[in-house]
Design goal:
Blueprint lengths: L1 H14 L10 H13 L3 E4 L5 E5 L9 E6 L6 H13 L9 E6 L7 H8 L29 E7 L4 E5 L1 H10 L4 E5 L9 E6 L2 H23 L1
Helix pairs in contact: 1-2, 1-3, 3-6, 5-6
């Protein structure tokens, strides 16, 4: 009951119309900050306006797993609710690595926060700060926000569609036992492999995949020792 109430409360802030003169969803950003504090999670922002809510794992030496959604402009209420629900379902699960709920700054249909995060790994970056993000000047550089994988989740009616990087597509092929359409892509994966899971049962599949990938990361690091 508490989980459902938390999701609905934050969803109200996500879906609430905000001023066209202010493309950033400030009420949601403030609500997420309060939510993180109430759950004793770490909250941070970078200079692209991206939000990071971190649930600590047992091994701080492992790169976190990210669950991501568009933060502004009500691009996808379904993605927001699924990301939040899967993140909360893991709040008391024993995971070795940190789990991070990432809200990408979004303007219109453009995930500008993700673009800046991806570009921050290169020497040239994305160039000048886009208009509207001046308020985040002086905050942490997105380059420091490293993750081992990015999960995007949308629970909705229909056959599962799974798109993403080869390493995660291979993992999901072994986990999924129902009909699903798999599409391998190399796009948007310069800093970390990513996976998009959409359709009926997407949240359940994502929960299993996150646990499985966490174990994979541990095994990968053990092989280097």
């Amino acid at each position: 009951m508490e989980l459902a109430a938390t999701i609905e409360s934050l969803h109200d802030a996500y879906a609430k119309p905000h001023s066209l003169q202010a493309p950033l969803n400030i009420p949601l950003r403030e609500a997420l900050r309060r939510f993180a504090a109430s759950q004793s999670f770490q909250f941070s922002e970078d200079n692209a306006g991206n939000n990071y809510i971190t649930r600590r794992g047992s091994d701080s030496g492992l790169a976190p797993i990210a669950i991501a959604f568009p933060l502004d402009g009500t691009l996808s209420e379904t993605s927001f609710k699924s990301a939040l629900r899967v993140f909360m379902l893991h709040s008391k699960v024993d995971l070795p690595c940190d789990l991070v709920l990432v809200g990408w700054t979004s303007m219109g249909s453009r995930l500008i926060g993700r673009e800046i995060w991806e570009a921050s790994a290169t020497a040239s970056g994305l160039g000048d700060t886009p208009p509207g993000l001046e308020r985040f000047k002086g905050m942490e550089n997105p380059q420091s926000a490293s993750v081992s994988a990015i999960f995007e989740i949308r629970e909705q009616i229909g056959t599962l569609r799974i798109d993403g990087s080869p390493v995660l597509i291979d993992q999901l092929r072994k986990l999924v036992t129902v009909q699903a359409d798999f599409h391998q892509s190399l796009e948007m994966g310069s800093r970390a492999p990513w996976i998009s899971i959409a359709g009926s049962g997407a949240e359940s599949v994502a929960c299993s995949a996150i646990k499985d990938y966490s174990a994979y990361i541990v095994a990968l690091f053990d092989n280097f020792d």
